[in-house]
């Protein structure tokens, strides 16, 4: 059970089917994958911590009475927001029940809510700050996320998000392409899609930029193990089924070696950082 009945800002919403876009993972699979990864997530979440910390530095000066951590996961940044805004009420919202169960005992937010970013169970004009780090890339209909942000933000409220775009895990993608030509890496939106959708959202775009974040690994298995522990392994529609054979893994390892650098095998993440604001008069 969620905390819906105990949070004054919440309202009941009907369950709606996901958008018919099939180039991004199905949200039910996303929820199941991240729920399963809740216990192992923080032990391998270096990228998530780095990106969320960077997003925190981009927040404008504000004193929210209520903030929302959208896609709150294990609650790392719910706790950071609670420390930054100690007088504020906080709502941690995630589509993965397993993440909420893990995060709730650790504290940080006032309310823990199971919900969908495309259909937020929140009242109109009920939030001063929406913070979302590495979550909205899993939403098939990002225009709906932006529409919901505009609806639930108070006039002058801020939506700060970090997401991933095309070019993420390009080394892994290209290595698999050399092995079998199949889709083994999650697909992400183009940078231009984020720019267009944000510009058309009715929110004011204060900043939007893409920065690469590169991690290094001693070998391919270390990378793929981390992706699985994060719940971020391949959940694309049309992904190859069945087990990956030893010969194909060996071929992948050989293909990836051409990217090796002095620090190890690189894995590049193209991170979108954006800060949007709702007009004072909507």
TrEMBL record:
Pathway(s) of this molecule: Cofactor biosynthesis; biotin biosynthesis
Protein origin, superkingdom: Bacteria
Pfam families in UniProt: Methyltransf_11
A molecular function GO annotation: S-adenosylmethionine-dependent methyltransferase activity
Gene3D superfamilies per record: Vaccinia Virus protein VP39
Keywords carried by this UniProt record: Biotin biosynthesis, Methyltransferase, S-adenosyl-L-methionine, Transferase
Substrates-to-products reaction catalysed: malonyl-[ACP] + S-adenosyl-L-methionine = malonyl-[ACP] methyl ester + S-adenosyl-L-homocysteine
BP GO annotations: biotin biosynthetic process; methylation
CDD domains (alphabetical): AdoMet_MTases
Domain Methyltransferase type: 68-161
Enzyme class (EC, first level): transferase
Enzyme Commission number(s): 2.1.1.197
General function of this protein: Converts the free carboxyl group of a malonyl-thioester to its methyl ester by transfer of a methyl group from S-adenosyl-L-methionine (SAM). It allows to synthesize pimeloyl-ACP via the fatty acid synthetic pathway.
HAMAP family for the chain: BioC (MF_00835)
Family of the protein in this entry: Belongs to the methyltransferase superfamily.
Name the UniProt record assigns to this protein: Malonyl-[acyl-carrier protein] O-methyltransferase
Naturally occurring in which organism (per UniProt): Pseudomonas graminis
Phylogenetic classification of the source organism: Bacteria, Pseudomonadati, Pseudomonadota, Gammaproteobacteria, Pseudomonadales
């Amino acid at each position: 059970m969620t905390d819906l009945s105990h949070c004054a800002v919440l309202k009941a919403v009907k369950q709606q089917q996901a958008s018919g876009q099939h180039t991004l993972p199905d949200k039910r699979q996303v929820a199941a994958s991240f729920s399963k990864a809740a216990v192992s997530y923080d032990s391998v979440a270096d990228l998530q911590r780095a990106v969320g910390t960077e997003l925190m530095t981009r927040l404008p000066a504000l004193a929210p009475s209520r903030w929302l951590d959208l896609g709150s996961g294990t609650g790392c940044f719910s706790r950071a927001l609670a420390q930054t805004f100690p007088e504020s009420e906080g709502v941690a919202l995630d589509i993965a029940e397993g993440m909420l169960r893990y995060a709730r005992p650790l504290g940080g937010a006032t309310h823990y809510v199971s919900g969908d970013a495309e259909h937020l169970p929140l009242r109109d004009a009920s939030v001063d700050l929406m913070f979302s780090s590495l979550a909205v890339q899993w939403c098939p209909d990002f225009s709906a996320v932006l529409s919901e942000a505009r609806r639930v933000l108070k006039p002058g409220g801020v939506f700060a998000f970090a997401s991933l775009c095309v070019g993420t895990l390009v080394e892994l993608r290209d290595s698999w392409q050399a092995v079998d030509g199949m889709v083994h890496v999650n697909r992400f939106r183009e940078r231009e899609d984020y720019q267009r959708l944000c510009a058309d959202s009715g929110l004011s775009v204060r900043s939007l930029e893409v920065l690469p974040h590169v991690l290094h690994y001693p070998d391919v298995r270390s990378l793929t193990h981390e992706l699985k522990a994060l719940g971020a392994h391949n959940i694309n529609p049309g992904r190859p089924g069945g087990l990956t054979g030893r010969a194909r893994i060996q071929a992948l390892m050989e293909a990836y070696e051409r990217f090796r650098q002095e620090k190890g095998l690189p894995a590049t993440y193209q991170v979108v950082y954006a800060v949007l604001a709702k007009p004072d008069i909507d």
